[in-house]
Amino acid sequence: MEMADQVPTSEAPVPNTVRSARQSAPPPGVALCLSGGGYRAMLFHLGGLIRLNQLGLLRGLARVSSVSGGSITAAVLGLHWSSLTWDDHDRSPDLDALVIRPIFDFGGCSIDMQCILKGLLTPGRSVGHYVAREYDRHLFHGATLQDLPDHQHAPTFVINSTNVQTGKLVRFSRDYMADYTLGMWRSPTITMADAVTASSAFPPFFSPHRLAPSGTYTEGGVPPLHGKE
Predict the structure, then answer these.
(1) Is residue 2 predicted with pLDDT exceeding 90?
(2) Does residue 20 lie in a domain region?
(3) What is the per-residue pLDDT across 68-93, written as a single tens digit (0 to 9) for each?
(4) What is the pLDDT of residues 32-76, one digit of tens each?
(5) Confidence of residue 201 (pLDDT cuts 50, 70, 90)
(6) Is the pLDDT of residue 115 over 60?
(7) What residues contact 27, with CB distance under 8 A and at least 6 apart?
(8) DSSP per residue, the chain
(9) Pick from 73, 117, 64: which is nearest to 98 by CA?
C-alpha cells in the first residue's frame, strides 16, 4: 500500500480549542500509559496487557495513552478492541489471538535496516515513509484513526508525538489530532501506520515523519522539545 503524506480531516484546525481543554479536569477513570523503547517496549507491554486481562482490569480502562514503541501495542489493541469478547469475570479469551500474537510475530521481523537504507537511497522518500509502509503491511492493513473504537463504549486511545516545527506535544486520537500551538483537527482520517510512525520516529535512526500540511513529527518523548508540557 502506498502511504499518503496527507492529513485529511472533516474540518480546518480550531486554534483555541486545545488551550481551553488544557484547563479542564480530566475525566474520571483508570488510564494505562505505554512508554517508549522500540521493540523492547512493544513486547514488554504485552505482559502488562496479559496481566491486566487475567485480573479482569483491562476491560475497565478509560484511556490508553502511548508513545513510540508503546504506540505500536496501543494501536493494535485499539483497532481490535471492539472485536474482543468478555467473560463473566471481565476477561477476554480473544486477547491472545487478536492482539498478543500479531504483535509478538511482528517482533520477529526486522524492518529497521531495510527502511533506513531505502530512505537514504531513494530520492523524495524518507525513512519514515518506509517504516509506515511496514507497519501497515504487518499490523494495520489500511486502518485509519477513525477505525479506533468510540470512546463511549471503549477506552480513549491517544497516540503521542512531537511537532518538530512547534516543539509541542501532539496527540492523535479518533476524535481529534491536536497541537497546543496550531490547534485541533476534528475526526482525522490519517492512517494508523502514519500516526504510529510519527510517534516512534526516534532520531537519528528514524527520520521525523512528515504529514502535510500539518507538520513534521518525531518520537513523542524527545525531552528538549516539550520537557515542560
Answers:
(1) no
(2) no
(3) 999 999 999 999 999 999 999 999 99
(4) 999 998 889 999 999 999 999 999 999 999 999 999 999 999 999
(5) confident
(6) no
(7) 62, 63
(8) -PPP-B---SS--BTTHHHHHHTSPPPSSEEEEE---HHHHHHHHHHHHHHHHHTT-GGGEEEEEEETHHHHHHHHHHHHGGG----TTS--TTHIIIIIHHHHHHTT---HHHHHHHHHHSTT--HHHHHHHHHIIIIITT-BGGGSPPTTSSPEEEEEEEETTT--EEEE-SSEEEETTTEEEES---BHHHHHHHHH--TTTSPPEEEBTTEEEEETT-HHHHTT-
(9) 73
The structure's pTM equals: 0.82
Grid cell at residue 50:
496479559
Strand partners, 31: 63
Query: pLDDT: is 25 or 205 the higher one?
Result: 25
Q: Which residue has the cell 513529527?
A: 217
Written as nine digits, the cell of 90 is 471481565
The residues near 96 (Cβ < 8 Å, ≥ 6 apart) are: 50
What cell was used for 149?
473504537
Residue range(s) defining the domain that contains residue 144: 30-219
* Domain-located, residue 67: yes
Q: Which residues of 190-212 are buried (b: 16+ CB within 10 A; e: fewer)?
A: bbbbbbbbbbbbbeeebbbbbbe
**In a domain? residue 23:** no
Tell me whether residue 228 is in a domain. Answer: no
